[in-house]
Design goal:
This protein is mainly alpha-helical. It is built from 18 helices and ten strands. It is globular, with a radius of gyration of 27 Å. About 2% of the residues have low confidence.
Length: 420
Amino acid sequence: MNKRLENKIKNTKGVSIHNGSLRLQFKLPGSPTSIRKTLGLIPTDHNLNIANNRLGAIKTDIASGFYDINPKQFWRKHFPTDTKNLSQQITVGDYIDYYKRIRDGELSFSIQSKMKSLKTWLTKHKLIDKEVVQLSHVEIEFAIKASLKTLKQSTVDDYTILFKRIIQEAVNDGSITISPFTRVRRIKSDDMYNVTEQTVPFTQDELNRLLAVVHVEQTKEMIQFLAWTGMRPGEMKALAWEDIDLERGIAHIKYNINRQGQLKPPKTKSGIRIVELLPLALDVLKRQRSQTYLIPPIVETVHYKLGKTQTVIRRRIFLSRENKPFIRPELSTVPKQWADWLRQAKLIHREPYQLRHTFASQMLMIGADPIWLAKQLGHTDWGMIRKIYGKWIPNERPEYRNELAEKLGQLESINKQQSK
């Protein structure tokens, strides 16, 4: 630990270091001595912030009388892994609440929403009130198999991945020695639910048929823009003219919109990227320029993790009614509107996210470099491209050898060999 952090902890009232871990100190009503509780967190700037927040919440609950009213719930709330003050072990539900508190400010809105769904899922399979120390891999596998009868593989995977992450926290703080997930088998549903089958992009003809029936001009422009850039709807709606270089034909992807309407950076570092714009995408921007380029900029707040924010001044490219910024990432928020358009165009139902798949599949079918495409889409590498879009990557390109040979100046030699 560096000297700066050591001094910072020394100057933080109620927080100290004990056996290499941060420890809290506070007084309970009527107690002549202070209570000391170790958090099991190593001294770091981030963990010091967590300790400070925890101590503040503890003091608030003591001052408000919460401890006097329900001391057991007080200990369960602030120290769920400390069984010394509890008459029973912590349950799965308790630990989910605990995980949410210690990760406060780190969890995205989508993860918080998934945690609510996870609780519902665990309640249905009678695991929510299960003591963490008694949770077995057999019970988890049973819940997974039962779920796959009615839910998609991707949905069940989301629940189990998040549940596994939460239970791992119990291992990290010593509540349990081994995660039951170490023995959980990977259970797959039928092939009809695999990720490849869920990818149903539009063909160019289907896209044209869809555009022909969309009567909302702004939505029509956004559909075409998504189909020829591969952006996510939230990324497109967050775009501002300050992110665009029309001369070079590029867009800087810096932000996304979450379901709370907040402007946030992309989830991963690779999501912050430069997108090279095809002519049809550039045409959309040129048409938008006449409508929104001269509209006065607005002050927006960018929300980062741990509650940090930044103020930026921007001019959004795509605007909703009365030239207001979009506050929802979905392409269309009018109930059944998207489904009605698909029916009118005589197309099978698929979500607007398939427009992103449309861009990827179209690029691969004409021989685009998968590594280039991965960067366009915001993937860290082209592994996801191979997994999701593998069937659109040409397996055989007889002319490819000749293309390489021509670049190397060797095409004439190949032609001579073939003529013999």
